[in-house]
Specification:
Bound molecules: aspartic acid
Number of helices: 8
CATH topology: Glutamine Phosphoribosylpyrophosphate, subunit 1, domain 1
Number of strands: 12
CATH superfamily: (Glycosyl)asparaginase
Strand content: 15-25%
């Protein structure tokens, strides 16, 4: 029996309400709407969760609409530092890169670490050295066009992520970010940390997070959502809601996308919006931002 299929995408949580009336929310929604439908067709046709999650994140990195890949904003010293991770729930293999500066598609470098090295996390200049081998283009600093110039003065953030369940029952979660805006140079958030920003276990589910990364690190957010679903039998909605409430109580904010092995989707957030799109096992399509 083939597994149910499902996929969920996010383009970051934050104060999106401030873009109302600028056309920007509509642009992002249209992009996510097209992307989720195209990728779903691929899944129906037998594409692997690994390929679909990689393609999803690459498309969002390249779009320039989110704080990841092209749209990333510079850190406190004026240059972009990129973090990304990917985890395959089949054997719990995982790869990530952090504080990289020269790659067009950080998610490709993370996948390269997962598939071609014995390590899980490679950082800084050594991550930059993997760019070409990973199949990502090398880009110069002027490639990056902060998607949110107007937001630089405001507390803001943004990330992209994908969680995919394929016909074989494989669950893959992937996350990529330029980090929180104006982050301290050298600062690394939850996105490249397996168990905090990204986690996937076959027969349970997958999670990709967005928000103030320090809180997701301090709560081991992604892995604890999966643990609750696994050990307590909670739904994606209940498990993610419980961890997000913990984060809110601690003073943090953000959101996450979660899929379980039955193809149930939850996309909760505690901010004034999260770019998101999903198609669950029943074929129900959800696209939204506020
Ligand atoms: N979680 C990311 C980080 O802390 C930022 C975000 O999702 O907006 O780097």
């Amino acid at each position: 029996m083939p597994s149910p299929i499902a996929l969920a995408l996010h383009g970051g949580a934050g104060n999106l309400a401030r873009y109302a009336g600028t056309g920007r929310l509509e642009l992002a929604e249209e992009m996510l709407n097209n992307l989720v439908r195209t990728l779903h067709q691929g899944l129906i046709g037998g594409s692997s969760a690994l390929d679909v999650a990689t393609l999803a994140v690459m498309a969002m990195e390249d779009s320039g609409l989110f704080h990841a890949g092209k749209g990333s904003s510079p850190n406190s010293k004026g240059y972009v530092e990129l973090d990304a991770s990917i985890m395959n729930g089949r054997e719990r293999t995982a790869g990530s890169i952090a504080a990289a500066t020269n790659m067009k598609n950080p998610i490709k470098a993370a996948r390269y670490v997962m598939e071609q090295t014995q390590q899980v996390l490679i950082v800084g200049p050594e991550a930059d050295l993997l760019t070409r081998a990973s199949g990502s283009e090398i880009v110069a600093p002027d490639y990056f066009v902060p998607c949110d110039e107007v937001g630089v003065a405001l507390p803001s953030m943004g990330t992209v992520g994908a969680v995919v369940l394929d016909l074989s029952g494989d669950v893959v979660a992937a996350t990529s970010t330029g980090g929180t805006l104006r982050k301290r140079a050298g600062r690394v958030g939850d996105a490249p940390i397996i168990g905090a920003g990204t986690y996937a276990v076959n027969n349970v589910g997958g999670v990709s997070c967005t928000g103030v990364g320090e809180y997701f690190l301090r709560t081991s957010a992604a892995s604890r959502v999966i643990a609750r679903m696994d050990l307590l039998g909670e739904s994606p909605g209940a498990a993610s809601g419980s961890i997000l409430s913990e984060i809110t109580e601690m003073g943090g904010s953000g959101g996450m996308i979660v899929i379980d092995h039955r193809g149930t989707v939850a996309m909760p957030y505690s901010t004034q919006g999260m770019y998101r799109a999903s198609i669950d096992a029943r074929g129900t399509i959800v696209v939204g931002c506020l």
